[in-house]
Design goal:
Length: 378
């Protein structure tokens, strides 16, 4: 089967989280036919991560992919669950993010000598809160012989989405900071006697431009925005409680805790300068969720394996785009948990997370050839 034929099969299997089981079963059956040893790691219910390996070498290269997709958004011009060709473009849900890369690596490994040790990891829930990868990295010993990790997701460079010559060597992190405000209730006929917690939250939102935004070469600036303000009065009274959330996409070397400290400093400054009422009380915390938030990461470009991989790409395509991802991904968790050099290389495409998602068939074949070279020569 060609990469396009494999992609046709897996696009036809609806794997919108949390319903990834069918794609996992397809990949497992395919790999067993190629002599791979596979292991299912149950994440929850019928959802499972798939670990696979083959080869007799002492060191292994690992290819990683997530098998879930986002929901089918928008108005498609074609059936999103049927791979549809238009010239070089292949349309279908997940065709670019990231079933295209998975198809390319599955086609590639057919022709690899068994003396080359290859490991494959496919996880659920990346498009949600990354339950799969956080579970996967608890099997830490499985990664001990891995010297290099390639995520087959497309990198989001400023000029294009993915491409065999686009190598993402780091990614932003992300955290959501919650701010709970306690104002002072008063009769609504005399609001000046109280402290309206909803209005205080709005003042923080208006003052978010004063947030201490960090910059890092390659990554550019952090992104910060208010995603929630909640509060109300249940009677003719000034609301004395409000809740808000601030979303921060981090650049290295900053981390989750530093983002929380910067929100605290912002609120204190607004209160010190009397933008906020001195009587308002605040509780600032990292918003709780089922999986941890994700710190940013970046590889050392001088690392021998990373440098050699970049050199291979440059020689094959005449140039290499060293990219720094603007969004978090499971790659962050792999790097943070294992410390193994982790890069992202996937086929070129577009319209991810929206209608009419597509991947370039030419690029699909290019990344497959590159994966083969990385396995054989790195």
């Amino acid at each position: 089967m060609s990469a396009t034929e494999i992609l046709k099969d897996i696009v036809s299997i609806n794997s919108v989280f949390p319903n990834e089981e069918g794609v996992g079963e397809y990949i497992e059956g395919y790999l067993k036919q190629l002599g791979f040893k596979t292991f299912r790691q149950i994440v929850e219910g019928r959802r499972f991560n798939l670990f696979a390996e083959r080869g007799s070498g002492k060191r292994a290269i690992l290819f990683y992919g997530h098998i879930d997709t986002v929901p089918i958004y928008g108005n498609w011009n074609t059936d999103p669950l049927k791979l549809t060709r238009d010239g070089d473009r292949l349309y279908g849900i997940g065709s670019c993010d990231m079933k295209g890369g998975i198809a390319a690596v599955l086609e590639t490994i057919k022709s690899i000598d068994n003396r080359k040790k290859i490991k494959l990891l496919f996880c659920v829930d990346e498009e949600n809160i990354s339950k799969g990868i956080w579970k996967a990295v608890t099997r830490r010993a499985w990664f001990d012989d891995v010297y290099f990790i390639v995520s087959v997701e497309p990198g989001d460079s400023p000029k294009q989405t993915g491409g065999a010559n686009v190598v993402t060597v780091g990614r932003r992190g992300r955290v959501v900071i919650s701010v709970d405000l306690q104002g002072l209730s008063s009769h609504g006929a005399n609001p000046q006697r109280g402290v309206n917690a909803v209005e205080e939250a709005a003042r923080i939102a208006a003052g978010i431009r004063g947030f201490d935004i960090k910059k890092q070469k390659g990554f550019g600036s952090e992104a910060v925005f208010v995603n929630t303000i909640e509060g109300r009065s249940t009677s003719l009274s000034v609301p004395d409680k409000a809740h808000m959330e601030i979303d921060v996409q981090l650049v290295p070397p900053n981390n989750i805790q530093s983002a929380k400290r910067r929100v605290e400093r912002l609120v204190r400054r607004l209160q010190r300068t009397r933008v906020l009422d001195s009587r308002t009380k605040f509780r600032i915390e990292i918003r709780k969720r089922e999986t941890p938030y994700i710190n940013p990461y970046v590889n050392k470009l001088g690392h021998r394996t990373v440098r050699r991989a970049l050199g291979m790409v440059r020689r094959r395509f005449g140039s290499v785009v060293v990219n720094y991802g603007s969004s978090v991904a499971d790659d962050n968790v792999l790097f943070e948990a294992t410390g193994i050099p982790t890069v992202t290389i996937g086929p070129r495409g577009g319209s991810i997370h929206t209608s009419n998602e597509w991947v370039s068939e030419e690029s699909l074949n290019q990344v497959g050839a590159l994966y083969k070279q990385l396995i054989n020569e790195l």
